[in-house]
Amino acid sequence: MQKILVIDDEVLIIETLDRLLRTQGYEVTLCQTGRDAVERVRKTDFDLIITDVRMPDFNGIDTLSKIREVLKEKGSKRIPEICITGYADDETTQKAQRLGVSDYLYKPFDLKDFIGRVKRVLKPHEMEYFSYGQKEFVYKYVVMLTDTDQFKHMSFANYLKLMFLATDALTGPCLTPEFLSNIRLRLTSSRMQFKRQSAPGDVIIVKVNATEINSSSFSLLYTFLIESSAELVGLGRQMYELANLKTNVAEPISDQMRNMLFPIKVEESNLVYRY
Amino acid sequence: MDDIEISNHKTFVYDKIGVFFKHTDYHGFVHPYNFLEWMSYAREAFFQELVPNFMELCQRDIKMVTSEVEYQATADAFFGDKIVIKIFSEKVKRLSFEVIFNFYREEDNTLLGEGRMRLTFLDATSGRPTLIPEELKKVVLEFERKHVSKDIRSNLS
Question: Dihedral angle at the C-alpha atoms of B57, B58, B62, B66, nearest 10 degrees?
Answer without folding.
Answer: 130
